[in-house]
């Protein structure tokens, strides 16, 4: 497995693979890999001949009071995992490699980022599309796989690929959960033992709402308000908990038969921000 910080080296490696007509899959990550990432790498392997994993904690997607400095970094562990799952290459650039000088350009997002995480994390998705664009330009993958846990990220990147005519095909990987339902996330490492026991409550609330909707509730406002109260009573601070349209990521009051929705929540447990979602196809 090639491990390189060098943009030139990863580019040349991929170029050689392409010359041999090999299909290149790509899984961008910020490291602290867990079984969720593993599943994405396996999915990419099924659809391609060589998989590149990038590990880069992207400063551009962290706000000034967010956890960039404390974000878990465990490169040696991560490389072991990538070797085990037989990634072909791991690209581990440093910040000056990705952002070498003044930035005269930026990508702005006009839609799809006004609700869910975009509403509470200004600049977050701009930072993501910037780095993902750069990574796509460096790696030039045939396919790239992103996780459903970050569904808004996936939908924004998909739209970016469509509008900017990117060649890469995007795939979404399922959410991987611990036995008690908690969606796997690198940030789960921040949870204390007590918080870890409470954390699956978010998924339980989402599952309860999903069940009521599948039983025919089409105006979930009160149901959601009740679940928010329950979570708050357990000590969660709610950022959002709502149903959003899958098409435009706007909140929806009345659900229609045949509609596609995202039932999603973001909550704080102590200092840890947890997100989760369930896709609804009515
Ligand atoms: O989902 C992530 O880990 C990050 O947002 C990504 C896509 C690697 C961009 O930094």
What is the topology?
Elements: E1 2-4, H1 7-19, E2 24-29, H2 35-47, E3 50-55, H3 75-84, E4 89-91, H4 95-98, H5 117-120, H6 124-139, E5 143-147, H7 151-163, E6 169-173, H8 193-198, H9 201-214, H10 221-233, E7 237-245, E8 260-269, E9 272-281
Parallel strand pairs: 1-4, 2-3, 2-5, 3-4, 5-6
Antiparallel strand pairs: 7-8, 8-9
Helix pairs in contact: 6-7, 9-10
The structure holds pantoate (PAF).
Structure overview:
With 282 residues, the chain is an alpha/beta fold. The chain has two domains: 2-173, HUPs (Rossmann fold), CATH 3.40.50; 186-281, Pantoate-beta-alanine ligase, C-terminal domain (Pantoate--beta-alanine Ligase, Chain: A,domain 2, 2-Layer Sandwich), CATH 3.30.1300. It has ten helices and nine strands. The chain has helices at 7-19, 35-47, 75-84, 95-98, 117-120, 124-139, 151-163, 193-198, 201-214, 221-233, and strands at residues 2-4, 24-29, 50-55, 89-91, 143-147, 169-173, 237-245, 260-269, 272-281. The strands form two sheets. A six-stranded parallel beta sheet has the order 1-4-3-2-5-6, sandwiched between helices. It has a three-stranded antiparallel beta sheet with strand order 7-8-9, with helices on one face. Strand 3 (50-55), helix 3 (75-84) and strand 4 (89-91) form a beta-alpha-beta unit. Helix 6 (124-139) crosses helix 7. The protein is globular. It starts with a strand and ends with a strand. 37% of the residues are buried. The model has no long low-confidence stretch (mean pLDDT 97). Pantoate binds next to strand 2 and helix 6. Pantoate binds at residues 28-30, 58, 61, 128, 131-132, 150, 153.
């Amino acid at each position: 497995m090639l491990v390189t910080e060098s943009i030139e080296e990863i580019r040349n490696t991929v170029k050689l693979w392409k010359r041999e007509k090999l299909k290149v899959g790509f899984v961008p990550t910020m490291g602290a890999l867990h079984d969720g990432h593993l599943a994405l790498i396996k999915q990419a392997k099924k659809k391609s001949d060589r998989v590149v994993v990038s590990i880069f904690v992207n400063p551009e997607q962290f706000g000034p009071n967010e956890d960039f400095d404390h974000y878990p970094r465990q490169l040696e562990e991560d490389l072991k995992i990538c070797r085990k799952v037989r990634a072909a290459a791991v690209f581990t650039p440093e910040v000056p490699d990705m952002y070498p000088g003044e930035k005269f350009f930026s990508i702005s997002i006009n839609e799809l980022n006004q609700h869910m995480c975009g509403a509470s994390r200004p600049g977050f998705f701009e930072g993501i599309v910037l780095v993902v664009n750069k990574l796509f330009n460096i790696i030039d993958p045939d396919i790239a796989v992103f996780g459903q846990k970050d569904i808004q990220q996936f939908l924004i990147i998909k739209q970016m690929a469509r509008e900017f005519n990117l060649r890469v095909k995007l795939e979404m990987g399922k959410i991987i959960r611990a036995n008690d339902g908690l969606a796997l996330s690198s940030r789960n490492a921040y949870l204390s033992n007590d918080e870890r026991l409470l954390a699956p409550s978010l998924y339980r609330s989402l599952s309860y709402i999903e069940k009521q909707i599948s039983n025919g509730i089409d105006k979930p406002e009160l149901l959601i308000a009740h679940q928010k109260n329950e979570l708050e009573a357990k000590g969660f601070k709610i950022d959002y908990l709502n149903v959003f349209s899958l098409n435009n990521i706007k909140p929806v009051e009345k659900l229609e038969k045949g509609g596609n929705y995202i039932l999603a929540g973001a909550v704080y447990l102590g200092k840890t921000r947890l997100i989760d979602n369930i896709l609804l196809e009515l």
